[in-house]
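We now fix the convention by which a protein and its fold are recorded. The integers have meaning only within a learned vocabulary of local backbone shapes. The record below shows the convention in full.
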Amino acid sequence: MSRQVDVAIIGAGSAGLFALSQVRRQTDNYVLIEGGELGTTCARVGCMPSKVMIQVADDYHHRKLFEREGIDGADALEPDRPAIMEHVQDLRDVFVDQTLGTTDRMGPEHLLEGYARFVDATTLEVNGEQISAGAIVIATGTTPVIPGAWSAFRDDIITTDELFEMEDMPASVAVIGLGSIGLELGQALSRLGVDVTGMDLLENIAKLADPVVNKLAVDTIGREFPLWLGTAAELEKADGGIRVRAGDNEVVVEKVLASLGRRPNLDNLSLENTALELDDNGVPVYDPLTMRCGDSHIYIAGDVNLDRALLHEAGHEGRVAGYNAVRKACTAFRRKTPLGITFCDPNIATVGEQLDELDESEIAIGEMQFGPVGRALIMGNNRGVLRIYVNKKDGLLRGAAMACVRGEHLAHLLAWSIQQRMTVFDMLKMPFYHPVIEEALQATLYGVLSELDIKEETVELQQV
């Protein structure tokens, strides 16, 4: 049995659904193929359930300010962890249902539930059926990494794909891998009463390249639970759990939360039948501006390409792949300004180019410590720092890094400013209300002016 379609999309996650949104504008002759559970990684096991848990943890943590604010009774508050997990799962299911709206309305002529493999560069096989496609979009997503050497401890290890299915939280956990997810979940679990130890082979957390921001983040988060950095973790069985060693440190915990990144779901696609060039990770080599793999009619989008594993980037890549898949000629589309946010407390965010990507002799660095920031003081959360990177010669904003309260909002302002190619002078002409966290950005912009090679007399004023 076989059929011909204009476009076949492999994967019904975020990137696949965004690709579909473009394809359906041009043709009704398409197929969406999904072998796993319907519903995106973000909604089911990623962005959304993690943020629910973080919100509950932050709400409970705020009780530590009550006495100072004149509110009695904080000592009587206790987290009901099974009830919290039920709340997380209830909201998670709402988010998943929202993503299923598209696929629920699709009939079998458009939605194939099964795993695809390439027969050749233009033909797929799904459930014994061959599908010849004018173009194919690979959007198969990723799976959490668990080192092969840890297979003997698999019953003691949980991943982010499994955490949100648990009915209760473990009493103690070692979080191995302190990227965004590891930091977010480690801090949330700690604030909800779990005995947490965080570990990472690197000395920096959340992929921070700025040593000033990294130090503040490590020092601040390390006040809540231990952070063992710069040493590989080793596991062994122990009475009552699993022993984790990192250098001279060791701890026995009930569970290990493995947060070591994700690997692309490509193993079963039979890519060898396509003649595509693969990189060292086994990912097809592609153009990030068109999402096209070589000179083929195959496109790749989303986490599976291991480039920018973020939902808004998956959305962009999916749209580009879908747009080009239904057209004879490929169009290159500008990438959005890099933006990464870790929803720990303080928020950690990176925007645009980072220090390891810049020539520090050509930039000025503006810095604002949050100690005196009025709004942060009012919130009882004034441990933070914002650093911006600016061209000395023209004042153009190039990038920023921060660990501060409400950094998620500052990061967006900075990302939009960079994408609009704004200078420090342009930004200072914008309104800043009082008292708001954004005043910290205003102070940072003023502070960097003296480091620039050019001056402007009417910094805050615009002539009519």
